[in-house]
Amino acid sequence: MAAGHNQYPPMTGVPALRNAISAKVEALYGRRYDPAGEITITAGATQAIITAILAVVRPGDEAIVLEPCYDSYVPAIELSGGTVVRVPLTPGTFRPDFDRIAAALTPRTRLIVINSPHNPSGTVWTREEMLRLQDLLAPTDAFVLSDEVYEHMVFDGQQHWSAARFPGWRRVR
Ligand SMILES: Cc1ncc(COP(=O)(O)O)c(C=O)c1O
Fold first, then answer.
1. Predicted pLDDT of residue 173
2. How far apart are the CA of 27 and the centre of ligand 1, in A?
């Protein structure tokens, strides 16, 4: 108590942790996020996902999920009042199908949720696939929610391409 640890921390998380996360992301992916304004601590990824979805999706908005996907995406979008737009991954390979993603985009698309390495298949998006999505979304107002909880579970010489490496996404400030 005398050291001041008995009160609420800042709502966005203690600065030392946010600084450490910023340094880790910069070391791994070469992109610096401002610990004061661009990093928020959550109680795990599920809370991070619902927090991000509730922050940007409003009733009437459309949010794309690539199925199969982690169970929390769809209920979080439904809770936001947004419309879930389900786009299947390619059967068998679970790779993104850009023709289907392109066909699902509308002026009301507010968000697309991507997940690499992917649960449940383990598929890891390539750099070319990330670039393709970035190009596809460039003329839109859509945000990307990139779920990378398995960033360190990559095998067989594959490489994880964090969304942090691609500066072309729209950013929340
Ligand atoms: C793709 C994906 N994202 C997020 C989570 C949830 O992470 P957390 O346990 O930190 O809420 C899981 C858990 O299975 C997951 O598979």
1. 44
2. 23
